Amino acid sequence: MTTPILSIIVPCYYEEEVLPSTIQILISLLNEAIIANEASPESYICLVNDGSQDRTWPLIEQHSRKSKYVRGINLSRNFGHQRALLAGLFNSEADVYVSIDADLQDDESKIRDMLRAYADGYDIVYGVRSDRGCDTFFKRSSAALFYGMRSKLGCQTIPNHADFRLMSKRSVEALKQFKEVNLFLRGVIPLLGFPSCSVFYARKTRMAGESKYPLFKMIKFAWDGIINFSEAPLHIILWIGFIGLLGSIAATIYSITQWYLGNIIPGWTSIFLLTCFFGSFNFVFMGVIGLYLGRIFKETKQRPPFIVQQSTH
Ligand code: UDP
Ligand code: MG
Predict the structure, then answer these.
(1) pLDDT tens, 275-287?
(2) Residue 144 Cα, ligand 2 centroid: separation in angstroms?
(3) If you measure from the C-alpha of residue 53 to the centroid of ligand 1, how many angstroms do you get, rounded to a whole number?
(4) What pLDDT shows up at residue 14?
(5) Span 240-244, mean pLDDT?
(6) What pLDDT, in 10s, does the model give residues 63-78?
(7) pLDDT score of 1
(8) How many Cβ atoms sit within 10 Å of the Cβ of residue 13?
(9) What is the dihedral of CA 106, 111, 113, 117, to 10 degrees?
(10) How far, in Å, is the centroid of ligand 2 from the Cα of 102?
(11) Is the pLDDT of residue 2 over 80?
(12) At residue 135, does pLDDT exceed 80?
């Protein structure tokens, strides 16, 4: 295998404070990888400005003039982290891609481990946080809840993997077939298949600047991560309906016995039973509509029905 051209994709949103040092660190890392013959000298860093209006873009332009290792893409407005990542992946030519956040909270030195795994034949290498010591208690417990819920609802998940990962050219090509707009990349990537493995690292704190993921953005993101991948919430409605129906049958036996024993005021039995049955039937009907809705949702996402890994012709 020839030495691959590496593109390091870095989404940047108001990152003027961290960019100069991030670029410097990544350039020296790239140099080391090139000397070690892990990456081709044509490799580069692709900085994607996601609509920041501070000095982020001028800095990217300035560094790209100074170094052949630095390239930039300027998005027309803020599209969000996930789409900024996609813009980088789909608009840079390389043999292998690594995405990493601009604040280098993820251990950039692991990029070389990822390249070695790629050389060993892995198409996708997930960066997994083995230590969340730097995160707040809230962030740790909400993350545990989120990953737990995703796997309970049947979504394929790599726990504690954010968007620090290596992808081969062919896996990026496969990703292009996923047309969904509300992207949750770390849910889609495991659906691609291909040989994959993980490298583990301890997450650092932000070098400077603030997190661009306030609570409400995180909740919306978590929502995408569940709703886009699971029809289970719709199925739950149907199950509630069926359980309600069983309950209604039990209620029928109870209320008719009470009526027979004369323990009730006139009219109660009929109203009680009507309420029980109508309530449960409503749930069942909504659940049935939900089944169709789930199918429609699946169709509208237009995910590829299959992905070819290789063929002999
Ligand atoms: N980011 C982006 N667009 C946004 C928000 C964030 O490109 O709308 C980038 C940001 O510059 C950083 C990465 O996404 O490189 C992760 O953001 P951040 O570090 O603020 O998130 P946290 O690590 O706190 O989850
Ligand atoms: Mg960060």
Answers:
(1) 999 999 999 999 9
(2) 18
(3) 15
(4) 95
(5) 96
(6) 999 999 999 999 999 9
(7) 67
(8) 22
(9) 120
(10) 7
(11) yes
(12) no
The residue whose C-alpha atom lies closest to atom 8 belonging to ligand 1 is 80
State which ligand 1 atom lies nearest to the alpha carbon of 11. Answer: 7
**Ligand 1 atom 24: residue of nearest CA:** 211
- Write out residues with Cβ below 6 Å of ligand 1: 11-13, 15, 50, 78, 80-81, 84, 101-103, 105, 211-213
What distance in angstroms lies between residue 226's CA and the mean position of ligand 2's atoms?
Answer: 22
Ligand nearest to the CA of 162: 1
Instruction: Sheet with 196-202: list strands edge to edge.
Output: 70-74, 44-49, 6-12, 96-99, 161-168, 124-131, 196-202
Query: Which CATH superfamily groups domain 6-212+304-311?
Result: Spore Coat Polysaccharide Biosynthesis Protein SpsA; Chain A (3.90.550.10)
For residue 50, the ligand closest to its alpha carbon is 1
Residue 198 CA, ligand 1 centroid: distance in Å? 22
The residue written with tokens 């504690």 in the block is 160
- The one-character DSSP state at 305 is S
CA distance 292 to 289: 5
Work out the average pLDDT over 31-59: 96
Per residue in 167-193, pLDDT tens? Answer: 999 999 999 999 888 888 989 999 999
Whole-angstrom distance, CA of residue 179 vs CA of residue 280: 37
**Whether this model's pTM surpasses 0.90:** no
Question: What is the number of the ligand closest to the CA of 13?
Answer: 1
